[in-house]
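re the bet — no i am not wrong, look at it urself. input seq straight from the record:
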Amino acid sequence: MRGQDVPPDLRALLDVVASAGGVDPLRDALGFALLMPGRDYPLLTGSYLNDRDRQNPDIMANVAAINDVLALITMVAESEDGDMIGYWHGPERTPIGKAAIVKLDTEGMFGLMQGRSLSEAMLGNAPFDDAERFSEARAWLAGCGIEIDANGRRGLSTPEASTRPDKLHEMLYRQKRMQAGTKAGD
């Protein structure tokens, strides 16, 4: 947590997962698992790269840009689809308690997620297109001691950040391509 206090909703989720005895209720309820030390997360480590990828300056410029943006995030969870989510500090070094939640998807794209907290972002990300499923997941969170005011996806707040992770990634990628000698438009 980069030396910062664990947000209350994350603390509650950690407690629920720790007391679950080998099953992962968070994955069942919201489609996410909290990150575990020592496990390989390909989006974070680059272990998905093969030798051909490593020889491609364009791919490696993108990987370097992704890594620079990742350095400004405290990643805490992985979706069942392999997307990673965490707290967006940005170059402004926003503290965890005030940080927007950011997602790095399996296509290497960053985006801010709806919601004021990690739990809200997970709830908003889950494929709950109907009110009943949203309500069930919201009730599960309430059972964990995490109250969500929103009654549906539209009730979740839209985060703001001085620097958007997707725009920063795009700028860094262009810079790194130019440093590698790749011309814009190639």
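see?? The two ends are 39 Å apart (CA to CA). told u. also The chain has a mean pLDDT of 92. so pay up
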